Amino acid sequence: MQFTQSQGVIHAETQPNLFVPPGYDIFWSAVVLVVVGFFFYKFLLPRINGVLDERADKIEGGLKLAEQAQEDAEAARAERQEALAEARREAAHIREDANTQAAQIVSEAREQAKAEAARLVETANRQIEAERRSAVVSLRGEIGGLATELASRIVGEALADDARQSRVIDRFLDELDASTASGDLAGTAGSTDREA
């Protein structure tokens, strides 16, 4: 503080307060603040709000796109899982069909093998029967000749008559068949001797 003297009165001069500016500064600062505020509010703030709104829209759009992409990914995953399940079902169906066809082929092969075996057995039986008949015919001829010769020797006369010889041979063979069935060969030989 400084003291000055003028006309006998001492006046104290005060130094300006640094924290409180003079009134004219406050007035002009307020005018500038209002102008800048008006300019800021009218021109700058709408642009800033526009930029912020644009960014918010972009962010919102990005979020929507991300949600849509996530939904699409979920749908694609669900579709893949459904396709995989369908492929598994199809594979199981194909496996089942293949097993059924394999069983059917095996069954058909068995039936064919059985039929072939039955045919071979039938052919073998026919061949055996034919060979047996051939052997029976051959044996009848040989046995007939032996029986005639034996009867001729036993009776002492020749059986030259063909009809008689044929009757004797047939009777002998019939008795031989009957005796082999009953196991009585001795009875057959005795009856043949008596007839001769």
Question: How would you characterize the overall build of this protein?
Answer:
With 196 residues, the protein is mainly alpha-helical. The chain has one domain (44-195). Helices cover 84% and strands 5% of the residues. It is built from 3 helices and 2 strands, in the order ββααα. It has helices spanning 23-155, 162-182, 185-195; strands at residues 2-6, 9-13. The protein has a two-stranded antiparallel ribbon with strand order 1-2. The radius of gyration is 68 Å and the shape is rod-shaped. Residues 184-196 have low confidence and may be disordered.
What order do the strands of the largest sheet run in, or round the barrel if closed? 1-2
Structural class: mainly alpha
Rg value:
68 Å
- The separation of the N and C termini measures 191 Å
Task: Note the overall shape.
Answer: rod-shaped
Percent helix, as a range, is: over 70%
Number of strands: 2
Mean pLDDT: 80
What is the overall number of helices?
3
The biggest beta sheet reads:
2 strands, antiparallel
Total domains: 1
What is the succession of H and E elements? EEHHH
Low-confidence stretches: 184-196
